Amino acid sequence: MKVKFIGAAGTVTGSKTLIESNGIRILIDCGLFQGIKPLRELNWQPLPVLASTIDFVLLTHGHLDHCGWLPRLVDQGFKGKIYCSGPTKEIAELILLDSGKIQEEEAEKANKEKYSKHEVAEPLYNVEQARKVFPHFRVVNTNEAVPLDAEISAVFVNAGHIIGACSIELKLENKILVFSGDIGRDNDVLMYPPTKPKKADYVFLESTYGDRLHPDSDPKSELEMYINNTFQRGGTVIIPSFAVERAQMIMYLLWQLKEEGKIPDMPYIIDSPMGVSAFEIFFENRKWHKVSLEDCIAINKMFTMITDYQETIDAIYNKHPKVVIAASGMVTGGRVLSYLERYIILPETTVIIVGYQAEGTRGRKLLEGAKEVKIYGKYYPVEAKILEIEGLSAHADQKGLLNWLSALENKPEKVFLVHSENQPADELRIKINETYGFDCSIPLMGQEFEL
Ligand SMILES: [Zn+2]
User: Fold this and answer.
1) Nearest CA to 354 among 324, 393, 322?
2) What is the pLDDT of residue 404?
3) pTM, rounded to two decimals
4) Rounded to the nearest whole angstrom, what is the distance from the C-alpha of residue 358 to the centroid of ligand 1?
5) Regarding the domain delimited by 219-392, which CATH topology (the fold level of the hierarchy) does it fall under?
6) Residue ranges near ligand 1 (ion) with Cβ within 5 Å
7) Which of 66, 98, 127, 447 is the most buried (most CB within 10 A)?
């Protein structure tokens, strides 16, 4: 068989690994490249094989960097099935529709401002094209062999990380290939620990945090302190957050603090239509996480969930202290901007950053102590306190990644380190070799291996 790395090789986005065996082509994940422009431009490149010749896509989870290129694949003639877990299908649909909308808006903006070098800027895909992916989804049960062909089968197992996330064990040509997908943490607040593989001839391991250890800090007590300090000043807390997973985690921590009587009575608001939908998926798929039905209902009750923009306006003009969770997570767009327009100039406000902030984003600038911030073309002085809570990552750190390999009963022929910048992958390579003596390889984009 042949394996070709066509995304998330030497970088953390655009996950795509192509397997070819006896005329069958399988794509593991089909993610969007994100971040700096040279990476985003890769989204416009065709695949090295015709989309119509790919038989199956196996999807590890619903994050955009793992599923966001599916509309292009379908548009270019993919006719096969996309296998994934139930919640992954739901999350992927939510994320693809949102992505289609963002692509449309960006093309529209480029045309309006004429900053595109093309005559007319086209979206990478639109909402309608995103929708055309949905009929291809086939939901699978975890821990059960899914036959793809007489000779090929796949088993999806829980990977923690976000709701529905799986690692995939692919059996073909009498070999077992294990694709980690994104691996969660062993002690995650919401998710169960990832299932460790027992047998593998080849491992394809994500290495996002291959060179890092998560801090020992306690995010819950930091949240408690920041909220109480802000409340005492009569201020509002604004938490920019990704709608999937991170928003549910913050809601859960806030609910626990409230239950324990550690934070005051005031409005707790989640202002994100996508965040509200993600909570519904979370609510309906309880076997995938640790939160009970009763607790889910209580969390739902504690929060004011805003989907209508008029309610956003009302919340913004209500001067009383409150806690608002709103997207986007890196303050690049979304409803959080409407709150910041009014609240960033007030010294009693606290903005709590709870996720990774990529270079060039407004969130990163705020973290780095920007004195003013531009929102919808206008500059605002930053008077609010900008604080950060680390330690909420949904990815395993170096220790977690090493631990994930600890149950292997045989020595794999090779461990491919993917989904990482070069430095973390290389440090992890050395650690894995020292710890287990496994042979590791860090594939380059476009590199092909004969297994
Ligand atoms: Zn992910």
Assistant:
1) 393
2) 98
3) 0.93
4) 15
5) Rossmann fold (3.40.50)
6) 63, 182
7) 66
